[in-house]
Every structure is written in structure tokens, then in C-alpha cells.
Amino acid sequence: MRNGWSRTGATTGGPVRRTRWVALMVALAAGTASLVPSGAVAAPGQAQPLQDTEVGVSKDTIRIAVIADVDNPVRPGVFQGVVSGVRAFAKFINGRGGLAGRMVQVDFIDSHLSADEARNALIRACQEDFAIVGTTALFLNDISPMTGCPDKAGAATGLPDVPLVQTEESHQCSPVSYPVLANQLVCSTRDQHPQTYFVKSGQVRYFVKRFKNLHGVYLIPSDLRSTVNATTPLARGEQQLGVKSDGEIKISGLATQSDYTPIAQTMKQRDSTYAESISDYKSSVFLRREAKVQGITSVKVWGCALQCYDAKFLSEGGADVDGQYTALFFIPFEEANRNKSVAAYLKNVGGKGNADGFGAQAWTAGLFFRDVVDNVVKADGRNGLTRARFLEEAAKVHDFTASVDGDAMLGPTDVGGHKVSPCFLLMQVKGNRYVRVFPKQANTFDCNPKNVFTIKLDQS
Q1: What pTM, to 2 d.p., does this model score?
Q2: CB of 147 within 8 A of CB of 119?
Q3: What domains are there in the chain, each with its CATH number?
Q4: Cα separation of 163 and 181, whole Å?
Q5: Confidence category of residue 6, pLDDT binned at 50, 70, 90
């Protein structure tokens, strides 16, 4: 069954098939890549022997780096799923003949929740790798080693980057970065006061329509100014849509459950009907446990996003997190039997127990890398792969869907234009498992354009 989505947000109608609509996607390129080795398509110079064309591109290997915060004392293994997702992509693509006639090699560089380590990781990747895929370094505040990275010819072309998480403004506005999940900051307003931000609002529009009198607390991760700046627009956007605030509360990633006691007391005093932590999944677990201790029964919506779509959230939260909502932008693992892209991710990551939301996002980043490389090969042949050409082709991808064999894992996404996709779906924890609640039909999204809007916010 093929994916379906609606530009108007309607949830009825059959799934989208490989018709003229699919022709609007890069599935044409992606499908070709996933059916045969990338180098098999006819292209200029196809018969030429493979050459060393760029830093990280040898006659037989394309090296990509994944830079992520994994080993650290605060949240050990916090982004291990990202590394596993990129490795799953490489395993999958190498099993199908590789890219541009070469095997893909993944170099994992741990940034250790450190600005210095993140900068050093960029320097190393610039010297050794063709590109970075899945970048998830929260302290990446100096991107000069990436934007000024010299190519094989010595030109400061920059190091192509397909990141997952960009907290620092400099990284969000990097000219060599193409995130599948675009940033909120409108970079043209970066130096303005106030700045403009994109806000994804589909799940809140659903909540406001279904539940009356929503008001509650928003938990903002406070350890970095960049995380405060990145998450505050989400809270303000939800308030603008009608969820009144009982308090925007800053909370450290080092907080224990006892630190959530005053938060729960505030919720109880105000009979909050809404609660959302925009921090990691442990924050939501602590909040739910403390709310139970305090006997809170007024909450209608426990909100969360990608970080709460994780087997660890279920195992650690148990019955305490029942009813939690989580908004996703990709087809969920529970529908793998109806989606070849999801199934390929789960197979290559080693099963559902090794998968998480960040890993799925890393998988889609890998597929974007595949599509761009394939586009370069189609135009220039297997020896045309350079950093400059990759960046040129990345900017042209405006309808990416993370497709495998015609099945799309995402709604059409304008990665090249750095546009926030309106497509989303909503899951809820019921009986220690995730259940789709909206849209009801499996393998579909709500892609109503109203699911994204802009707000102005001064965070100086």
C-alpha cells in the first residue's frame, strides 16, 4: 500500500499510488536507486573507470561522518539511535550496490555534549569525509570548520551537512546544511528584533478542536540558551492557537523527579488541562510520575513530540505514561508491514527494539543523501561526485519523501528550500504501545498548509 496525504488535511480517500502525483516526488530518482546500484543508470562518463574525485570519495568508497552526542555523563547514549540509523542506511544501500558504484563507509565521531569536541569533529570530518549525515551535536556553536572546509582542489566549498538537530542559530542558518526536518528560525530575520519563526501546529489544532478549555504548563530545556531559544517558539505558537499558559517553566536535563514536584503542584493548583515537556523523553516520564504522586486528574492532553516515540519511554514510563500523545512526521514503525521504507529501516537497524524516533529521522537523512548523490550521477556520471556538485543538487530537491521501492516514509518535503513540512500524524500510548489516533487511516499524513504558521518573537 502506498502512502496517502492530503493538502487540505482531509483524512478520507485512498492512499496515493505511483501516478502523476508520485512523479512530483523524487521517488523517480529514489526508486531507481533502490532497485539497482546507483551507478547502473546511464550517465555521462558511465563506462569510465572509477576515480578518486573528492575528499572522502575514493575509487571504491564514499565516506560519510555522523557527528552526535552519545557518550556523556548527563544523558549517556542520548543520541545513539542517530548513529544506528545512519549505519542502518549504509547497510541498506551497500546491500543494493552502494552509491555511484562505491560502498558507503560511516565514520562515527562522538561530540560528547561538548562545544570543543563538536568543533574538533567538524575538523576531522572535513579532512576525511565527503559529507556529514545525521548531525546531532547540541553544542555546535562554531561551524566555521564546516562552512570553510576546503575540497580536494583546495577551494573553500564547505562540508555538506544533512543534520537532524540544529540548536545554535549559526548551525540553523548554515549555507551548507540541508536538514530533512527544517529549522524554525527564518534565517533572513536572524539579526532582526523580533525574529520570525515557523511553528508546526497540526497536533495543537487537533487538540484545540477536540478538547475545550485547554490551559497548562510548558517545560523548556534550560541548560543551553540555544535550546531555550529553539523551544520557546513552540510553546508560544501553541499559546497563540488557544492553549493558555499556566507557566513556561525552565527545567534542566540534569533534573531528577523531585525537581518536578513544584511543577506538579502548580498544575494541581491551577487544575491544568494541558502539559507538555519540550525536553527529552525522561522529562515527560518524570512529569507524569510526579503528577501521579500529586494526584493530578485534570489533564486532558499530555503532549510530546519525536523524543517520546521511543521504546525506552514505554519501558521506563510504564503505566504512568499511558495516554501520552506524540506527534510524528514519518510513518510509524507499527505500520512497517504496509510501508517498505519503514520496513527497510527496521530490518537494517536490527529490529524494532533498536529503533527510535531520532534513528528514523537519521534514516531519512541517509535517503536524502542517496537521492542527491544519484542526481549528481545522473547528470555527471559516477566520477562527477564532488562536494560542490552535491550542494548544487541538494538545493534542487523540493519534494523529498524518503522513498524505498515506491513507498514514501514522509510527506513531500522541500528540503532544498529549507521549508517546514506541514505533514504530521498523531500517536498515543495505549496499553504500553503506540496507537495511531490521527489521521485514522494507516500510511497517511495530515498535510494541511495551516499546520505551519509563523510567529514573531524577540529572544535577545
Answers
A1: 0.88
A2: no
A3: 4-181+335-408 (3.40.50.2300), 195-328+422-457 (3.40.50.2300)
A4: 9
A5: very low
